[in-house]
Design goal:
There is one protein chain. By secondary structure, this protein is α/β, with parallel strands linked by helices. It is 28% helix and 24% strand. The protein contains three helices and five strands. Strands 1-2-3-4-5 form a five-stranded mixed β-sheet. The longest helix is centred in the middle third of the chain and has 12 residues. The chain is globular, with a radius of gyration of 13 Å.
Length: 104
C-alpha cells in the first residue's frame, strides 16, 4: 500500500493512525478508508454509508475470493450490510496486485 501511494502521489496515514480504518488515503480531497484483510487478525468494524468510501485490501486474489465466499455464505446483519455496501459501490474489494482499482 505504501509503495502504491508514494508512486501515485496519494497521501496516506500510517497504519493504525486512525480509529475508523487501518489507513486513510487521500487524493484531490477525496478520501478512502482502507481496511487490510488478514486471516489471522480480527478486522476492524467498518461503517458502510453513502457518505464515505471504503476499500478492503487483500494480499492476493485467493484471499479475496475466500473472503467473498464466506461473506456470501453468511446471513447475519453485518454480512448483509457489507454485501449491500459492495453492491452499491460503497465498499471496494481490491487485492494488492490491483491497487490501481482504488478509484479516488
Amino acid at each position: 500500500m505504501r509503495d502504491y501511494c508514494v508512486s501515485h502521489a496519494v497521501l496516506f496515514t500510517d497504519l493504525d493512525y486512525n480509529d475508523s480504518a487501518d489507513m486513510l488515503i487521500t487524493k484531490d480531497t477525496k478520501q478512502i478508508g482502507i481496511f487490510i484483510y488478514s486471516k489471522g487478525a480480527k478486522m476492524r468494524k467498518l461503517t458502510v454509508s453513502s457518505d464515505s468510501k471504503v476499500a478492503i485490501v487483500f494480499l492476493n486474489d485467493d484471499s479475496a475470493r475466500e473472503f467473498v465466499n464466506r461473506l456470501y455464505a453468511s446471513y447475519d446483519k453485518e454480512a448483509e450490510v457489507l454485501k449491500l455496501g459492495i453492491e452499491y459501490n460503497y465498499v471496494k474489494l481490491v487485492d494488492s496486485d490491483h491497487l490501481d482499482q482504488l478509484v479516488l
